[in-house]
DNA sequence: CTAAATGCAAAACGTTTGCATATAG
DNA sequence: CTATATGCAAACGTTTTGCATTTAG
């Protein structure tokens, strides 16, 4: 936890960004909700509990910054909001998601299932893959009745 | 072309929807731009050339309807707009995309690369896969210099 | 000290909705 | 004829922006 914050602090400073209390509070919220898929509004409300003076615009600006630094990934499941998902430390690629069309639950898959597929794409389409987004839509275990 | 429209007409009628001139014009635009990834606004402007009286709201309502009928897929590449992509006739699954981070071009991959991956997901996570979304981000052939 | 960041309110944006009118079947 | 669809304008929710003020480094 603390060392991850330290890490992010270094990343910020290396590009002459500052680690403000608001940014730190935002990062802490993200770390504490690592498996969730929070919207900007969600993050705002959670940060507000600890740092009540923060403004929604600052949260948006911070999330944008963290996306740029690849600390988080900005994702979109088709409802009208962007969601923000912390990257696992050192993860090269974005993880995958299973979205249940019945209950709306979102499950994360950490393991990279796309190694072979990426090779095909690189060869066949001469496309230099940098990252991917993979989401499955279907029915989750507990909704299968 | 004409038979695809006829087909869609039948699908509409089977659920007591009507094939209005506005809907037909919208479908024709989608058919004429099969490889593009048009936003609602894009579609609106193109339809307007042929049917100038159409309203943007009608385009939105038509695209929503076609999404429900699985004639098109609504996709989101992370810019703020939804895009609409015609399904290949009889396609069970949504096709994949290669998005170039340099020039923004979008290439479609028709062949299904995820057969094996889906089997893993079904077994390992007991998740009943209905559809998927797969997008690769990287550098396309012509930007690799 | 000064460049960078903040909070606020206003604006912008894509999308949806209410409603009176028109029309496909 | 009637349920369904339309066009328009207003409303909506999310995200961005301008600006005067504050602050981390």
What would you say this structure looks like, in words?
Two copies of one chain form a homodimer. Helix content of chain A is 41%, strand content 23%. The model of chain A has no long low-confidence stretch (mean pLDDT 93). The relative contact order of chain A is 0.12. Chain A has five helices and six strands; from the N terminus they run H-H-E-H-H-E-E-E-E-H-E. Chain A is globular, with a radius of gyration of 17 Å. The first copy, chain A, has two domains: 1-91, Winged helix-like DNA-binding domain superfamily/Winged helix DNA-binding domain (Arc Repressor Mutant, subunit A, Orthogonal Bundle); 92-145, Ferric-uptake regulator, C-terminal dimerisarion domain (Dna Ligase, domain 1). The N and C termini of chain A lie far apart (40 Å). In chain A, helix 2 (21-32) crosses helix 3 and helix 3 crosses helix 4. Strand 6 of chain A pairs antiparallel with strand 6 of chain B, so a sheet runs across the interface. The structure holds a DNA duplex (25 and 25 nucleotides).
Features:
Arc Repressor Mutant, subunit A, homodimer, DNA-binding, Dna Ligase, domain 1, 145 residues, 3-stranded mixed sheet, 41% helix, 2 domains, 3-stranded antiparallel sheet
In order across it, which strands form the biggest sheet of chain A?
Answer: 1-3-2
Low-confidence stretches of chain A: none
Instruction: Please indicate the count of domains of chain A.
Output: 2
> Strand-residue fraction of chain A?
15-25%
Report mean pLDDT of chain A, rounded to a whole number: 93
Oligomerization: homodimer
The helix tally of chain A amounts to: 5
Largest sheet of chain A: 3 strands, antiparallel
Report Rg of chain A.
Answer: 17 Å
What general form of chain A does the structure show? globular
Architecture (CATH level 2) name of the largest domain in chain A? Orthogonal Bundle
For this structure, what is the CATH homologous superfamily of the largest domain in chain A? Winged helix-like DNA-binding domain superfamily/Winged helix DNA-binding domain
Helix content of chain A: 40-55%
**CATH top level label of the largest domain in chain A:** Mainly Alpha
Q: Please report the two chains with the greatest interface, counting residues with C-beta closer than 8 angstroms to the partner's C-beta.
A: A-B, 33 and 33 residues
User: Could you give the count of β-strands of chain A?
Assistant: 6
């Amino acid at each position: 936890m603390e060392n991850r914050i330290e890490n992010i602090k270094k990343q910020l400073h290396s590009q002459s960004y500052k680690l403000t209390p608001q940014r730190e509070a935002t990062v802490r919220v993200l770390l504490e909700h690592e498996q969730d898929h929070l919207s900007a509004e969600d993050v705002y409300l959670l940060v507000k509990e600890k740092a009540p003076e923060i403004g929604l615009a600052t949260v948006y600006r911070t999330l944008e910054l963290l996306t740029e630094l690849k600390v988080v990934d900005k994702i979109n499941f088709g409802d009208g909001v962007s969601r923000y998902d912390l990257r696992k430390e050192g993860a090269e690629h974005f993880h995958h998601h299973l979205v249940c069309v019945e209950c709306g639950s979102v499950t994360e898959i950490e393991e990279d299932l796309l190694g072979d597929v990426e090779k095909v794409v690189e060869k066949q389409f001469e496309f230099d893959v940098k990252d991917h987004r993979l989401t499955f839509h279907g029915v989750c275990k507990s909704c299968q009745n």
